[in-house]
Amino acid sequence: MALISCKDLAVGYDNAAVAENITFELNEGDYLVVIGENGSGKSTLIKTLCGLIKPVSGNVSYDDGLKKTCVGYLPQASEDQKDFPASVWEVVVSGCLSSCGLRPFYNKKEKALARENIEKMGLKGMEKRRFGELSGGQKQRVLLARALCATQKLLVLDEPVSGLDPKVTAETYEIVKRLNDEGVTVIMISHDLTSAVGYSDHVLVMDGTIRFCTTKEYLETFNLKEKYNG
Ligand SMILES: Nc1ncnc2c1ncn2[C@@H]1O[C@H](COP(=O)(O)OP(=O)(O)OP(=O)(O)O)[C@@H](O)[C@H]1O
Ligand SMILES: [Mg+2]
Fold first, then answer.
1. Which of 139, 156, 158, 170 is spaced 20 to 30 Å from 197 by Cα?
2. Mapping DSSP to helix (H, G, I), strand (E, B) and coil, where does residue 216 land?
3. Could you say which residues of the chain have pLDDT below 50?
4. 14 lies in a domain?
5. Cβ 190 under 6 angstroms from ligand 1
6. For the chain, what is the domain count?
7. For 94-117, what is each residue's pLDDT tens digit?
8. What is the residue range of 116's domain?
9. How far is CA 178 from CA 62, 148, 173, in A?
């Protein structure tokens, strides 16, 4: 059975669809990039996939093995995060919360995982800084480190590289790709077509009509193969 399967899905708010006729399946280990104009419903779709909002109609089904606790979700950066009072360490380690269950503290393994991801994202030495006072790119890296703590199966990233400098952008793609090579399924929204699509194996285009295809088909259709793959 597919890891996630959407059939005739319509997503939106208060029963009004912002995107509809969404049908696709993702298998374990797939890497999907979601592209489309501003306001086309990309973030709404992945919030629906993460179970944060209900479908307007149609349905999403998950493989039994995919527990919600195994999903690492990186929300799109927003201004609301500005005054967030927690420290970098607290935000990152909170990615382990779901694995704690009812245990009221983080164990050694969880703390080690948080430290590892802090290092991976180049945040070492910043653990005590207040999240709210970081730059946009730094916040994004903290949230990515947090998502990496949460995921074992599915990483859902809403524009993970927006605001990051070119070096960290490239490193972020590499980290996500490495996780994908290790078997983590990835869903990534990106406006950065050149890089993002190159790493993926499937593309979901949301531009009024919905189109789901393999990256190969996508590049062939738009005659972009040479541009992306050299
Ligand atoms: N909480 C909300 N309540 C009602 N409508 C919303 C809400 N959030 C988003 N919308 C509307 O839903 C539509 C799709 O928004 P969404 O955030 O999914 O777009 P997007 O494709 O992610 O765009 P972007 O590329 O700008 O991030 C927009 O018209 C937006 O105004
Ligand atoms: Mg969005």
1. 139
2. helix
3. 230
4. no
5. no
6. 1
7. 988 776 666 678 889 999 999 999
8. 81-151
9. 24, 12, 9
Report which bound ligand comes closest to the CA of 44. 1
Q: How far is the CA of 38 from the centre of ligand 1 (A)?
A: 8
> Is position 103 within any domain?
yes
| SS3 of residue 121 by DSSP | coil
Is the CB of 42 within 6 Å of ligand 1? yes
Q: What is the per-residue pLDDT for 230?
A: 45
Is 39's C-beta closer than 6 angstroms to any atom of ligand 1? yes
CB 43 near ligand 1, within 6 Å: yes
How far does residue 44's CA lie from ligand 1's centre (Å)?
A: 6
Residues 171, 183: contact at Cβ < 8 Å? no
Residue 224 lies in a domain: no
Nearest CA to ligand 1 atom 25: 38
pTM, whole model, 2 decimals?
A: 0.87
Q: Is residue 139 part of a domain?
A: yes
40 lines ligand 1 (CB under 6 A): yes
Distances (CA, A) of 22 to 8, 11, 18: 5, 9, 11
Strand order through the sheet with 4-13: 16-26, 4-13, 57-62
Q: What's the confidence (pLDDT) of residue 82? A: 62
Please name the residues in contact with 26: beta carbons below 8 A apart, sequence gap of 6 or more. Answer: 2, 3, 4, 5, 32, 185, 187, 202
